[in-house]
Amino acid sequence: MTIDQMIDEAIGREGDYVNNPKDKGGPTRWGVTEQVARAYGYKGDMKLLPRETAVAIYRQRYAIDPGFDKIAAMSARVGELLFDTGINMGQAVAGQFLQRALNLFNRGASFYPDLKVDGACGAMTRAALDSYFQKRGRTGEGLQVLLWTIHGFRTGRYEDISIARPANEEFAYGWIARQVRMGIAA
């Protein structure tokens, strides 16, 4: 999937305007919260947020800024998962999930040095990912284990945030169902 396809898919999934009182995000259109829209200079009514503004925000905030576009160039599947995770949980959390998984699978730093788990998917994280793929496989089982692990971290976080804020239980099933659909399409 290209970045453009990931953005189109996200916007299609997130839908038009919503303002669910149980959602901490508040007024949201195309999956872009009011807080994020304002941070990117949008001053209008959220019900009128143009789709092209949402596309630009998705591209910059969830692909380019966190480096997920570069990860996607290495592995479209990993890039897509990080992009989706970044939208739902924050870009740093998505990056941390990848870094934690890479550290877990580096055989005591014998494949590559342990990464600082800071969520920044820069050159060191990409080098570790490349080494992981060289050792474990860019496709097949190596890729599947990495994706499965990141999905597992996501599921654990959904539980944590739903326990910490019971109103999130309204969304937990849908969040996990989304992961299942991503995994089935794998």
Tell me about this structure:
This protein is an all-alpha fold. The protein contains nine helices and two strands; from the N terminus they run αββαααααααα. A two-stranded antiparallel ribbon has the order 1-2. A hairpin with a 2-residue loop joins β1 and β2. The mean pLDDT is 94.
Q: Ranges with pLDDT <50 over ≥5 residues?
A: none
The class by helix and strand makeup works out as mainly alpha
Number of strands: 2
Q: Approximately how much beta-strand content do the residues carry?
A: under 5%
Helical element count?
9
Helix content: 55-70%
Largest sheet: 2 strands, antiparallel
Average pLDDT, all residues: 94
Strand order of the largest sheet: 1-2
Oligomer: single chain
Give the overall shape.
globular
Order of helices and strands: HEEHHHHHHHH
Short summary of the structure?
This protein is an all-alpha fold and 186 residues long.
Keywords:
globular; 186 residues; 66% helix; two-stranded antiparallel sheet; mainly alpha
Question: How do the strands and helices of this protein lay out in sequence?
Answer:
Elements: H1 3-14, E1 28-29, E2 32-33, H2 34-39, H3 51-64, H4 68-74, H5 76-89, H6 91-104, H7 123-136, H8 140-164, H9 169-184
Antiparallel strand pairs: 1-2
Helix pairs in contact: 1-3, 4-5, 5-6, 5-8, 6-8, 8-9
